[in-house]
Amino acid sequence: MKTRCYCLYCPNHPLHSKQRDFKDILTGWWLGDFISSVYDEQGRLVNCLNPVSSAFSELNIDPDDYEFETTAYSDGVAVTGIEEEGFNIFANCKNETYEEV
């Protein structure tokens, strides 16, 4: 699934090798947060999302029917999602490994 990704620390991000060129890298972001224009240059269109919400199967929601506009680092992991009336859906980056602790 496609998204505009701001995760410069990811080795698969198109600007990963140029992360030192940026004064600040976007972190601490959460769904619904505003992204300052300072970070505009960091966002790139990528196709790396993996839907993880049970809503996709339980509500027969096709993730391709929605746009995951932004993916960025929150607290050490990439987050994105959809906020619709009645449900919130989250997706993870396919390039990261997640383990329950």
Can you describe this structure?
- The chain is mainly beta and 101 residues long.
- It has one domain (2-93).
- It contains one helix and six strands, in the order βββαβββ.
- It has a six-stranded mixed sheet, with no helix packed on it.
- The chain is elongated, with a radius of gyration of 14 Å.
- The mean pLDDT is 80.
Unreliable parts: none
> Helicity range of the residues?
under 10%
Return the domain count.
1
Encode the helix/strand succession as letters: EEEHEEE
- The amount of beta strand, in percent, is 25-35%
User: Tally of extended strands?
Assistant: 6
State Rg.
Answer: 14 Å
| Mean pLDDT across all amino acids | 80
The profile of the biggest β sheet is:
6 strands, mixed
**Order of neighbouring strands in the sheet with most strands:** 2-1-4-5-6-3
Shape: elongated
Name the descriptors.
single chain; 101 residues; mainly beta; six-stranded mixed sheet; 6 strands; elongated
Helices, strands, pairings?
Elements (H helix, E strand, L loop, with lengths): L1 E4 L38 E4 L1 E3 L3 H4 L9 E6 L4 E7 L2 E7 L8
Parallel strand pairs: 1-4
Antiparallel strand pairs: 1-2, 3-6, 4-5, 5-6
